[in-house]
Amino acid sequence: MDLPISPEAVSALLDWYRANARDLPWRRTSDPYRIWVSEIMLQQTRVEAVKPYYERFLAAFPTLPDLAAAPEERLLKLWEGLGYYSRARNLQKAARAVVEQYGGEMPADEGLLRKLPGIGDYTAGAIASIAFGIPAPAVDGNVLRVLSRFCGSCADISLPETKKMWNQLLRPVIPENAGAFNQSLIELGATVCLPNGEPLCASCPLASSCVALRDGKTDALPIKAAQKPRRIERLTVLLIRDGNRTALHQRPPKGLLAGLYELPNLPGHLSPEELPDRIREMGFEPLRITPLEPAKHIFTHIEWQMIAYAVKISPAFDGYHEKSGYQLVPDDDLRLHYAIPSAFSAYKKYFG
Ligand code: ADE
């Protein structure tokens, strides 16, 4: 099988990366723990969004054992707004496994890394190559786009087999400087070989041998099968407050936003007349109900269409709401200790 990228193209890529790599916080360290944290945060999340989270997270947990020992509540508060919270929980699970199995040092082995919670082929390859210089491929969405265009490949990049194919094809190409090579492909995809018909081919170090550019196919590639449309869920969100406390509800331990705290909500778009009985079932006595603005939140597979009401309640006296799974949280506590998912961001301004 021909190599997908010639040695000359690999050199051009490495030269380009040396001259053009963005100065990012996780590129100023060789600490495998820090590189791992960055790679987990960067999954499905833009570099600019990750930067402040990365700095705060590592200020709070400077070493892997610090993360392993942290209370989950603190971890989730630091992740608040970044989304995909199972990433944070898996990070901690894996940190605990590394403390138990490897004395707190990340293993310098692609296969052992892949066995840790939350670390798949891409992340194992990224950590192995960037932190340890191991010649492992790290094929993410950016890299799939670059490779598909460069080689003129019509393989559907939404299929796991396609990722597997590129992993196999890339392995013999990886030079000694594996971390720089993988990051050069990621960087090229993020800054030059842009999606949605906007590649900046005039700035590309691979332009002279790019099949898609030669054949006028940069708009058509990569091929990605159409995703199923998102399921729409209508919700009625309740901002239930008694003076200086807000009602929260803990979500079930499995599924969307598992175990996180949320504003109380009910399925469907309910009218003000339908609410008082439902609010009493939660254990609260409504005094006044005022409509708030609607809001939307898009998850990977689901879209929430929310309407909302502010509900003033009389101070709770019998603790019934706690039995029904709701709690009234004082404003300071809410601000400092509870991670409320971004889906509810539109209503955070009404917290005290
Ligand atoms: N996305 C995933 N990994 C990255 C890295 N190391 N640098 C920039 N963007 C990335």
Report what the structure shows.
The protein has 352 residues and is α+β, with helices and mostly antiparallel strands. It folds into two domains: 7-214, Hypothetical protein, domain 2 (Endonuclease III, domain 1, Orthogonal Bundle); 231-350, Alpha-Beta Complex (Nucleoside Triphosphate Pyrophosphohydrolase), CATH 3.90.79. It contains 15 helices and seven strands. It has helices at 7-20, 32-42, 47-60, 64-69, 72-79, 86-102, 110-114, 121-132, 141-151, 160-170, 178-191, 211-214, 275-281, 320-323, 331-337; strands at 231-241, 245-250, 261-262, 265-267, 286-298, 302-313, 326-330. It has a four-stranded mixed β-sheet. The chain is elongated. The model has no long low-confidence stretch (mean pLDDT 95). The protein binds adenine. Adenine binds next to helix 2 and helix 11.
Write down the domain tally.
Answer: 2
User: Which ions and ligands are bound to the chains?
Assistant: adenine
What's the gyration radius in Å?
24 Å
- Estimate the strand proportion: 5-15%
Distance N terminus to C terminus?
64 Å
Number of helices: 15
Keywords:
single chain, 352 residues, alpha+beta, Endonuclease III, domain 1, Nucleoside Triphosphate Pyrophosphohydrolase, four-stranded mixed beta sheet, 15 helices, 15% strand
Short note summarizing the structure:
The protein is α+β, with helices and mostly antiparallel strands and 352 residues long. The protein is built from 15 helices and seven strands.
